[in-house]
Write a structure and sequence with these properties.
The complex is a heterodimer.
Chain A (H helix, E strand, L loop, with lengths): L2 H27 L9 H22 L7 H27 L3
Helix pairs in contact in A: 1-2, 2-3
Chain B lengths: L2 H11 L19 H25 L3 H8 L4 H26 L3 H31 L8 H32 L6 H27 L2
Helix pairs in contact in B: 2-6, 2-7, 4-5, 4-7, 5-6, 6-7
The chains are: A mainly alpha, B mainly alpha.
Chain lengths: 97, 207
């Protein structure tokens, strides 16, 4: 394996692992004692998950080399999913505050 | 013919090992396009599960938050890291195979399998701990979603093993080797990884 691609894949793994731990830490900080509804934590956690999924598809699955159609379909799926989840969460949270 | 057209024809008709390599062109689809269609269908099905989960969650957030307190988040994050490392090994396996370093690629697919087994092992430990604490499928709505999503994901991990075995089988003999099939198998395994990333966020970490 070329040193460049080896280094790139390792960097991606380290970034993915680091943001996984950050996401866990954010959840844990707000999990001491009783868990409470928390919009900023949910927003941050879903944003981190979006970055992770996009990195996996783009780098590990090599979609960044793929034709534009494939990249756009992948991005559209992810954007639609996460925006739907956030919209449902925040609209729903409005009824409980 | 334009350069892009010639490149596309080259990608379509050349033997797998001679196809355009990533970096050579911006129009390279790793593996068989059929697998990408399959991944899209799976991604849409799981997206509908996630949306249904969220629709139920917002109706009774207190129940979901109380139930989340009973999960072992440490085991969840460990399993996430395990799958990420397994995906990293599989991505390296594709690179090694592309460079015709088949022994290295074979070892990397074996490491991917070991990590996949570790993931399932930890999941079984987690399930048995929860059942022993009386947290079952019928305990409440959250745990119904929890067992459904994690079990259907484990089913996909098990199907992933079939693809990993096919990749290992391909890499083992010069007569069978096909870069396209190795890439196809890797594409499926990475899908299993990114689906877990979403499941981990939704079940364990959001508040």
């Amino acid at each position: 394996m070329t040193a460049t691609s080896e280094r790139r894949l390792l960097t991606i793994l380290l970034v993915l692992s680091a943001i996984t731990l950050i996401s866990w830490w954010i959840g844990a900080q707000h999990g001491q004692g009783e868990f409470r509804l928390n919009g900023p934590v949910t927003f941050g956690v879903l944003l981190i998950a979006t970055v992770k999924v996009r990195l996996i598809i783009g780098e590990f699955m090599e979609a960044r080399h793929a034709p534009r159609l494939l990249r756009r379909v992948a991005d559209a799926w992810l954007a639609l999913l996460v925006s739907s989840l956030l919209a449902i969460y925040f609209i729903g949270a409005g009824f409980h505050t | 013919m334009t350069d892009a057209g010639a490149a596309a024809d080259c990608a379509r008709f050349a033997p797998p090992d001679e196809r355009i390599r990533p970096g050579d062109a911006a129009h390279y689809v790793p593996g068989q396009p059929d697998m990408w269609v399959f991944v899209l269908v799976e991604a849409l099905i799981f997206a509908s599960y996630f949306v249904i989960y969220m629709l139920h969650r917002v109706q009774d957030p207190a129940l979901y938050l109380r139930s989340q307190e009973r999960l072992n988040a440490g085991l969840g994050v460990t399993n996430t890291l395990i799958l990420l490392v397994s995906s990293w090994f599989m991505a390296r396996c594709v690179q090694s195979s592309r460079e015709r370093r088949y022994d290295v690629a074979f070892r990397q697919v074996l490491f991917t399998m070991v990590l996949g087994l570790l993931f399932i092992g930890f999941k079984l430990i987690d399930w048995s701990r929860m059942v022993s604490e009386g947290l079952e499928l019928s305990t409440n709505e959250f745990f119904s979603f929890y067992y459904f999503l994690t079990a259907i994901h484990v089913l996909h991990v098990l199907i992933g093993f079939v693809f990993l075995i096919v990749a290992a089988y391909q890499l083992r003999s010069p007569l069978r080797r096909s870069q396209e099939i190795v890439e196809t198998c890797a594409t499926y395994w990475h899908m299993v990884d990114f689906l877990w990333v979403m499941i981990f966020a939704l079940l364990y970490v959001i508040r």
